[in-house]
Write a structure and sequence with these properties.
Layout: H1 7-24, H2 34-39, H3 54-60, E1 66-69, H4 74-98, H5 101-117, H6 121-124, H7 134-151, E2 157-160, H8 166-173, H9 189-218
Parallel strand pairs: 1-2
Helix pairs in contact: 1-5, 4-5, 4-7, 4-9
């Protein structure tokens, strides 16, 4: 979501990652420009798609630290992933029809679903597919975690569950003044459903309002009757 704050980075993801995948009809990782993010003033990245490029990040920034967030089981991860995809796919697809900027994100969602589910049909389906291929998705998740552990030096990697709170993060990142406030909790399944539903109805109401205004603008005026 923060990619929209920097148009150059947003277009980098689109041109280097998403568009090549559509052209090849394959969920390729692409030759992305990780250094552009650092040159734009950012000191860290989180979440997808950046998380998939840990090898490139390590190559460009050998002293970088990595945090691998984990869940209790792969099944729990898949449940969370399914809730996310089912919550945002249709609202984002509809929104992208009316707001061109959202087209970047809609196409990206197709790419990430194709990548996680190991199925290129997500790139070309008429409507976005919010049904995941469980076996393939879990295999992608497990392989990602295995490869991160294999590639990243042990002294530069923290395996972390958010249930552990601030302590492990502060120790790993060498933060002397660790927060004493409760660890934040957001993006729960319920929150995602509420946010996506609100976004969908907001977009729908805006479209209906616009169509009504256009209808009124082009409605022919009645001629006054002669007495």
């Amino acid at each position: 979501m923060y990619a929209y704050e920097n148009e150059e980075i947003l277009h980098m993801w689109t041109n280097k990652l998403v568009n090549p995948a559509f052209e090849a009809n394959e969920a390729l990782l692409g030759d992305v420009d990780i250094r552009l993010i650092a040159e734009s003033g950012y000191q860290a990245v989180a979440d997808l798609p950046s998380a998939l490029f840990y090898e490139r990040i390590l190559q460009e920034f050998p002293d970088c630290k990595f945090i691998l967030t984990t869940r209790e089981t792969s099944e729990i991860w898949f449940k969370s992933w399914t809730t996310l995809t089912q919550s945002i796919t249709i609202p984002m697809y509809i929104g992208s029809r009316f707001f061109p900027t959202l087209r970047h994100y809609s196409d990206y969602l197709r790419w990430i679903y194709a990548y996680v589910n190991k199925d290129a049909s997500y790139l070309t389906s008429f409507l976005p597919m919010d049904k995941n291929i469980k076996e393939n998705a879990i295999a992608t998740y497990d392989e990602h975690n295995r490869r991160v552990r294999e590639v990243i030096p042990a002294n530069q990697l923290l395996e972390y569950s958010v249930k552990e709170g601030w302590g492990p993060l502060c120790d790993f990142l060498q933060i002397e003044t660790c927060p004493h406030t409760p660890f934040p909790k957001s993006n729960s399944g319920r929150q995602m459903r509420v946010q996506s539903s609100a976004a969908f109805w907001a977009a729908a109401i805006s479209v209906l309002f616009l169509l009504n205004q256009l209808r009124r603008s082009f409605k022919p005026k009645r001629k006054k009757k002669m007495d």
